[in-house]
């Protein structure tokens, strides 16, 4: 009887000793996703929430059956190569390249074997990230919301609200890959509408202040802030300056309008992050990036803040209100 109890006790101790090993083995088997972004750690946490929501829908919960290594460039694109090199050295299973084309380019240069899933506002073919929307090829796929190529449509909506504005300011971040395309689309629209386009570069908070100082000096009739992760992270500063100087402004997503901006036209960005995370989940389950077609945004939101319009003394035409997807009273 004593020998039987001893054997049971020894077996129990042996099993307990193996628990930490089993736990370590389970942790080591947990896939790791590298989340690379040009943004700062405190910028737009709703985007990371959207990404985690998509992972959850795909069956992966952070800390339970997937780990996420976050790398933030803090709006300094020159930091991206070192950050992505670290992720490659850690042999992550997938790299989620977010926050603009610079992060995608850095990841593309760093590896041609680790799958890369982007969240991007530009044209992935034109910028050389994929060879086809339906069959991307290589190790890259993702979700594109085409925010950087909507300048023409945004200019048209802004013109309907302030048709007598002779000069429209276009605020762009020259450090992004999408800047040139944003400029060309807006310039073509301005030419068609018979308006003059004043291009103002800004890639730091102080340069945003300087851009608005130039707008005051040049007495611009309105401003279009093109889709850019840095601008959206600084949206409260931009919205406050536009209100202070009574400049009608068009933005790239509803976050600006919810914070008091006048109008926005663009895609639901947190949902684009969610959709890209669904692709990450599919790759973790064994699918190849080359076989996953680019997830293209099909629905764009037009949002108007009537309170801001009234504060600016603007009468929003009924035809414009009728086309709005959301009106903030």
Structure at a glance:
The chain has 329 residues and is of the alpha/beta class.
Please render the helix and strand layout as text:
Layout: H1 2-29, E1 32-37, H2 45-57, E2 67-72, H3 80-89, E3 94-98, H4 101-110, E4 116-120, E5 140-144, H5 151-161, E6 167-172, H6 179-193, E7 196-201, H7 205-218, E8 222-225, H8 229-233, H9 235-244, E9 249-251, H10 254-258, E10 263-266, H11 269-284, E11 295-296, E12 301-305, H12 306-311, H13 318-323, E13 326-328
Parallel strand pairs: 1-2, 1-3, 3-4, 4-5, 5-11, 6-7, 6-8, 8-9, 9-10, 12-13
Antiparallel strand pairs: 10-12
Helix pairs in contact: 2-11, 3-4, 5-6, 7-9
CATH architecture of the largest domain: 3-Layer(aba) Sandwich
β content, as a range? 15-25%
- The low-pLDDT segments are 1-28
Radius of gyration: 24 Å
Question: For the largest beta sheet, what order do the strands appear in spatially?
Answer: 7-6-8-9-10-12-13
List the domain count as a whole number. Answer: 2
Secondary structure category:
alpha/beta
Number of H/I helices: 13
CATH superfamily of the largest domain: Response regulator
One letter per element, helices H and strands E, the order comes to: HEHEHEHEEHEHEHEHHEHEHEEHHE
Using the coordinates shown, work out and report the CATH topology of the largest domain: Rossmann fold
Helix percentage range: 40-55%
The dominant shape is elongated
CATH class of the largest domain: Alpha Beta
Termini Cα gap: 81 Å
Query: Quick one: how many beta strands?
Result: 13
Major sheet size, sense and barrel closure: 7 strands, mixed
Average predicted local confidence, pLDDT: 88
